[in-house]
Amino acid sequence: VRGLLDFMDSFDDPQVRKMYELFCTLDIRLDRSASLNESSIHDDVHIVIRKQLSNPLMKYKKMGIIGATMVLRRLGTRTPTPLTPDRRANARSMLDVVTANLNDEISRAFFYDELASLVEEDIMDPVIVEELLARINDDFDTEYFVEYNPDHDEFPPFHPHLQSRCRFNLDQRDAAIALKLFPQLASMDKQERAKPLLLAPMFRLVQACARARGDTILDEISAVLGCPIIVFSEVHMEEFDRLDGTEKDLICQCLFHTANWFRAVISAWAEEQATTEIRGKVQQRLEQLIQVEAELRDCMEANPRWIPPLSSYGPDTGDRITPVVAKKGKEYANVERRGRRSTEKGGKGKEPALTRSVPLQAYQRELELRACTILGYCTPITLVLRDSIARTETADVINLKPQSIIFLLECLKEKVDRHVPSTRRAFPPKSTGQTSNESVELFLKKLIPLAPSLRWHMDKAIQRIHGEFEERGRDSLEEPLETLKDMNTILHLVFRIVERIFQWPNLKLADHGTMRRNLLISLLMDPEGSMSSQSFQCDGDGDAENRFFRHIEDYATYVHDLPLAVVHLDLLAALSAGSQEEIALHHELSAVAKGYLQKKWGDPKSLKPEHVAHIVA
Fold this sequence. Notes:
Layout: H1 2-6, H2 13-33, H3 38-54, H4 58-76, H5 85-101, H6 105-120, H7 126-144, E1 145-147, E2 164-167, E3 177-179, H8 181-185, H9 190-194, H10 196-212, E4 229-232, H11 235-238, H12 245-269, H13 276-302, H14 321-344, E5 381-387, E6 392-398, H15 402-419, H16 440-447, H17 451-472, H18 482-503, H19 513-523, H20 540-553, H21 562-576, H22 582-597, H23 609-616
Antiparallel strand pairs: 1-3, 2-4, 5-6
Helix pairs in contact: 2-3, 2-4, 3-4, 4-5, 4-6, 6-10, 7-10, 10-12, 12-13, 15-18, 17-18, 18-21, 19-20, 20-21, 21-22, 21-23
């Protein structure tokens, strides 16, 4: 054990987690056997954890946090017998040790995420859950929220030149609290300015503890879902180019943390069993998230020197904090020098376009997989807005817009690409999101309830495309309309998601036959029916494969975009590979490819040779 502890420097986060899990298991076994050396592992592990937590380097501090979390897991696991006072005292002592050594926001946020992942496993004793909630609940309420007066949505100036205002209010006059985001970011106190980094991780832990206590719809904290946010006034977006660098940075930070907050609340309330009111608010928050992120990207283009703070603390992101920032800082400096040289040479003086080596998503909070259940909101939602003060009611019909569907499908595709290895990759790429120990099998089991929604959106997109061509004719649509582009994008994303799932080599093995069958049956569910579990009768796995293959094959009639045709063929190839009737399906695949080669694809100048070559291959 001591030898392994000495070699932890070369371990990544998942390996550190596995090692501490092993040590805690050995400690339990020795404790049960009452060995003479029963305290040896316990003492060695605790000494190493304390050293790592006290280390100023984030790499070692993260190791200590992971170790402390594994020890809490060992001490607080739910058992048939009540938690003993000794175990509770030891758990409190470990929490105190960790808290005393976390003197920066990044390490505290990482600890909150680790605790949230632990609570979400649903194995912790209620006493430990209550202890965690008691430690952060008061801080969460007092640090981030203030009372809201609907008659006064303007506040005293928190910044000498930027006005503040309440925005994004879904509760209207019934709102009781407001999130004080801009006042913290505009504060002169450095610690106060850093608090928004802890907002989303702390909320994730609060809602995980609430669910563990039995509040599955989060009724106790539902006020934060639709509450307004104190941000800057909208007028500053119109005059953004005239602001100085510090003011631009402040607006970018405010938009960034607003987007992270929306991602957190959407992930928390996007369950399918939610009420109509909650579904409507989640859908509205999703639209606001897309709007805020669009504004943030526009501001980042106009303010290319601003670097987002890292707010996603997954298994690998912590080790990349310093290199990423240093690399981007150097890149920004090079861009600035190139811009000065181009201006000196008689250029127009415009800021050069910046190609970011690290996308914005690498810094943002990740939408959790359960947020993709919003794809199941296939029918319009009638949201009744009640004003308790004026005693009035207004009804608002909310539909899931194409932009929202595309946003969620892109999120789902990123998760599938990360968790499910394809035939060209032996192992899935390293995670860049929240801490996750899910195996590929467990991840795919969680995807099965989403399959009917994917089928529904495929069919609806095909119907919209067919309707546009029937109404306007082929010749009038050589320049695709915006609606047609959105439908093609939706089909492209769904095709890629399903293709990646069926590219997983193990899915063709006998051990995963049940999972493959369940996926196919879910994809064959009636798209007009309920998104909940339904029964579907198939005569064996081969029948389900053939039915779904031919359903996807029928889409070829309505594919009028060459890149989409390429993805369509890739999906058919993935479905036919390893099938019980692989040879027959390959012949049908060849027939679809020949049909695409004979098809007229709009303007010949817009055709890319690689697309045609792909179809020929």
